[in-house]
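Kindly inspect this one:
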Amino acid sequence: MRPLPLIVHVQSEQDAACIADGLADWGTSVQQRGSEWDILVESRSLAIGELITALHKCLAENDISLVSVTIDGRTYMNVRPA
């Protein structure tokens, strides 16, 4: 059975593009879901540390205030540091 993709949820298309670009080495696709955007990361070779580093970079550089990440059906919140 193929593992579920890791999914990053954001509020804008611009935020989704930034994060998808930051995670592009692991194979990403972007989908709109209502008023939100999801970045699907297909490669499970992505280490959690690499994901967090990429997310923090995008949060800091692009004034993204909040993302949530779904891993294996569990959702975690990542908030931009003050």
